[in-house]
């Protein structure tokens, strides 16, 4: 028997099934926690945000449109809760360097592959820890609207239409922001790695 969809589970929850909502939480908790952690930089904060998000889902379940998909709605709630948490605070995000880029056209490509240019990559001389720290620093410097679309597209493999729903922006805006985000990240990353190169001998 096929597992029920998210939308079916929510309907079962509304119909009084005591296990349906627990199944929803178990199905999405891990990915949602990873998503929020990239915005908060804190495991304890991410735990709190995700818990608040599921409480909001529970409270708002009766108003959910059954013709929509539940996962983007869930991420929308979590993103809003994360923004509330981060207001007035410094943003930090953990970004796995070897994360696979989403989309069939880029299958097998790593995030750092996006940064390649015709010159040798100075980051190859850095340790994994140094590169991870640099990626975090670059993401931290980026405008939040570009960082959000980058995280959703490349680290959670959301389709453009789902990103549009999560961020409540037009599909064309998603595409233009993602293009700008990749270009800006690549330029910033290469500039920072070159800054850290040792001076050439005189």
Please characterize this protein's 3D structure.
This protein is mostly helical. It has two domains: 6-86, RNA polymerase sigma factor, region 2, helix turn helix motif (Rna Polymerase Sigma Factor, Chain: A); 104-195, Orthogonal Bundle (Arc Repressor Mutant, subunit A). Helices cover 61% and strands 0% of the residues. It is built from eight helices and no strands. The protein has helices at 6-14, 20-40, 43-60, 70-86, 128-141, 144-155, 160-167, 171-195. Helix 6 (144-155) packs across helix 8 (171-195). The radius of gyration is 19 Å and the shape is elongated. 26% of the residues are buried. The model is unreliable at 90-95 and 102-106 (pLDDT under 50).
Question: Rg from C-alpha positions?
Answer: 19 Å
- Sheet with most strands: none
Count of separate DSSP helical elements: 8
Based on secondary structure, the structural category is: mainly alpha
Q: How many extended strands?
A: 0
Overall 3D geometry? elongated
CATH architecture of the largest domain: Orthogonal Bundle
Strand content: under 5%
SSE topology string: HHHHHHHH
Helix content: 55-70%
Query: Which CATH C-level class of the largest domain is it?
Result: Mainly Alpha
* CATH topology term of the largest domain: Arc Repressor Mutant, subunit A
End-to-end Cα distance: 72 Å
How many structural domains in the coordinates? 2
Segments where pLDDT lies below 50 for 5+ residues? Answer: 90-95, 102-106
Mean pLDDT: 79
The CATH fourth-level homologous superfamily of the largest domain: Winged helix-like DNA-binding domain superfamily/Winged helix DNA-binding domain
